[in-house]
Write a structure and sequence with these properties.
By secondary structure, the protein is mostly beta strands. The chain contains 2 helices and 9 strands, in the order ααβββββββββ. The strands form 2 sheets. The chain has a 5-stranded antiparallel sheet with strand order 1-2-9-4-7, with no helix packed on it. It has a 4-stranded antiparallel sheet with strand order 3-8-5-6, with no helix packed on it. β1 and β2 form a beta hairpin. The longest helix is centred in the first third of the chain and has 4 residues. The chain is globular and about 45 Å long. Pfam families: Cupin_2.
Length: 115
């Protein structure tokens, strides 16, 4: 018999964006990544970018959803550039080349989905 407790059914990850700077402070001239959730079906990493910082072209091993939660970014996927602001998001399949550039300070979440 399996137990279905609240702890097994959901996990509160964040109540607002206000605590982001404390949880994952920006680093001058760099980006800073911090895993904020790790579950069986998904993982979420928050990445804080200082101004004029790029996360160079790379691939993820699983499908991802990237969401902008602060500032603006330029998201490049397979050579196409998409400007994304707060609330903007994009889905990318596994093993697809992509990059992120922040002209101004920005913060994103990357949700890694189970393959």
């Amino acid at each position: 018999m399996s137990k279905n407790t609240a702890a097994e059914q959901y996990e509160l990850i964040s109540v607002s964006a206000l605590g982001n700077a404390e949880r994952n402070p920006m680093k001058p001239g760099k980006y800073a990544a911090k895993r904020i959730f790790a579950g069986e079906k998904a993982q979420i990493t928050e990445i804080a970018f200082d101004a004029d910082v790029e996360l160079k072209e790379h691939v993820a091993r699983t499908p991802i959803i990237v969401s902008v939660i602060e500032g603006k970014i330029e998201f490049t996927v397979e050579g196409r550039k998409y400007p994304l602001a707060v609330g903007g998001c994009i889905f990318v399949e596994a093993n697809v080349l992509h990059a992120v550039y922040a002209r101004i300070p920005a913060r994103i979440t990357v949700t890694f989905l189970s393959a």
